[in-house]
Amino acid sequence: MFKEYDVIVVGGGHAGCEAAAAAANLGSKVLLATMNMQVIGQMSCNPAMGGVAKGQIVREIDALGGYSGIVSDRSMIQFRMLNRSKGQAMWSPRTQNDRMMFAAEWRNMLEQTPNIDFWQEMVTGLLVKDGRVVGVKTGLGLEIPSKTVVLTNGTFLNGLIHIGDKNFGGGRAGERAATGITAELQALGFESGRMKTGTPPRVDGRSLDFSKMEEQEGDPSPSKFSYTDTSIPEVQRACWITYTNPEVHEALKNGFDRSPMFNGRIQGLGPRYCPSIEDKIDRFAQRDRHQIFVEPEGWNTVEIYVNGFSTSLPEDVQYDAMRKIPGFENAKMFRPGYAIEYDYFPPVQLKHSLETKLVENLFFAGQINGTTGYEEAACQGLMAGINAHQKVVEEEAVVLSRADAYIGVLIDDLINKGTKEPYRMFTSRAEYRILLRQDNADLRLTPIGHRIGLANDERLEKVNRKRNETDEMMKILKKLSVKPEDVNGILAEKGTHPLKQGVKAFSLLLRPQLDLSDLERSPIIHEALKNFTDDAKEQVAIHAKYDSYIEKEQEMVEKMSRLENFKLHSDFNYRAISSLSAEARDKLSTVKPTTLGQASRISGVSPADITVLMVHLGR
Domains in the chain, ordered, with CATH? Predict the structure, then answer.
């Protein structure tokens, strides 16, 4: 019935969708197997993409040739660039999305992608021969052969949903859990664990009083994620902000004795940086209010997502407490919040390519690796799909370094440090975050996407034009002389000292009070720059402000790259080096780093241990 596929992707969430699209667009014959084709690309939690650090990841996915940025733009109902009050390295794009449009757009794009077949059924096991995966088994007893398999099971592996005293099997509200794969992977020698995540109630927007909340509109000049020609909506939907209060907190505390989180029924660790509302009021007892974001689920629905009110308390406690929030006094609930426990596999069991160390040609991506968030899952799916294809065609794996992308930071963190709680990306995790900005993802990554065949010639030409324009504009500004009478009026207005003699235009950009848009009000500067694109202007403005910082980070990258040049064999016997610390011997033997640079980033391996290794290697 089934031919042999190049890649079978198990799971139709964000990771699975990106994995299937990437492998297929590179030329592999792909089967996307999912339990329910009606929820491909489903936004299981909040109806939004991006945010701090996550927005950079979506830009990076798009720059490489993935689909998440395009899908987000096409289903956008609001756009905001977060952290504008901070430096450019912190700017992070975020879209509010139409949940139904998002999923429909994902399915449509996948169906329009040649080389993808679909199969709706539960995958219950793997076909493994001589330490290599050769296909999957399904609930109907079918065996489907494949050269590689990518597991993107999300929260479905032995998923257990908790609401107060009740719990029942499920991978998402209204959908059954996936069984069989965990036991089979454990039998193959994989270590597994349990994690938990949660989601808030959904309510009827017609029952809310928005006059008691703060309106939060989108940016007046919205941008987008994709570097392709996606459109920007002419109108945007507003969101709102309200707050809990001591009365809300007391109502929630009344249900703590029935909370599965506090009475021990939930064993898995939840996300530290996205806690449930009961966890917030327990951990931050000194605070008398917490922010609640009131987010519409789409253009043509009254359903509202109550962001910040994630909970697994009994539904009657949820309902009573929620109606004490300003604006929610008459709220009608569509469905209660819940927590979900699920199996994951500590990611130290993976290579940088996301291929498992124990079973060849088997890849893991998404929440199976202990991450949380659509964006974190999607980028792993993209890289797993790319590398599954690379394995099929016997080409070298594509590995992004920590200096290349947030995607590289995420994967490097996972495989070197592992995680015992849901891993979420933050700008603080990236040591080169001034280099890894949201505005330059195309400059960093599109050449890589083009080299492997995922980004087309047109995209590369666009990047080259942007780079060339930026260089040309920098040269013009460094040569252009401006006189005091050209700019002193602008300088006075911006509160910076006037010129007494002529200077080069570029030097004025170094002043913190001035932006390029200010200087363009000078006729001489406007004339010199009138033919340049906004993208090039943005790059020049950033480089002027951050040039010395960018240079320092590039020096750090070069120093670290020297350690990356020292290769380590996978069969290196670390236990034979008695001068290594005991912890380092254990960690290095488990992770089996491929370079000295990777070894230096393993938790528990000290700089002294790295020195010992360098001496041992004759360096």
Answer: 5-198+342-452 (3.50.50.60), 202-337 (2.40.30.260), 457-553 (1.10.10.1800), 565-616 (1.10.150.570)
